[in-house]
Amino acid sequence: MERQPEGVVRTPGQTLTEAQRLLDAGMPFHAHEVFEDAWKSGPEAERELWRGLAQLAVGLTHAARGNTAGGARLLLRGADRIAGFRDPYDIDVTGLTAWARELAARVQGPVDAGAEAPRLTSAL
Asked: What are phi and psi of 6, to 5 degrees?
């Protein structure tokens, strides 16, 4: 599958909408690339948020590919990275950290990335 274009500057809302579309389509690595663009182009104060969301998406990618240890490690790292944020842009930080920790605890083989896709906000 073709990669996402790199270096696209989006608003936070556009980033979340595009990442959610890709997650729902079972394309978490592509969602990771969207979050990576936000992490690299966004304000310094938000970089860890977007970096953590990128880690959640790539953790789901690894879990879908059967790399359970790597997937779990990245899911937990991403959850820890975003946990200190208080729902910026209506991102459901509490729900995402709970989702990541629960998935990391139970992943034992390849998962269906689309079926396991988290909801980033209550609005999406």
From this structure: -95, 155
pLDDT per residue over 22-75, tens digit each?
999 999 999 999 999 999 998 999 999 999 999 999 999 999 999 999 999 999
CA dihedral 28, 16, 56, 53 (to 10 degrees): 140
pTM above 0.70, yes or no: yes
Spatial neighbors of 90 by CB under 8 A, at least 6 apart, are 121, 122, 123
Q: How far apart are CA 90 and CA 35, in angstroms?
A: 16
DSSP 46: G
Say how far apart CA 56 and CA 95 lie, in whole Å. Answer: 12
Q: Rounded to 10 degrees, what is the CA torsion of 20, 3, 26, 28?
A: -60
Dist. CA 49–CA 3, nearest whole Å? 22
For residue 27, the SS3 value is: coil
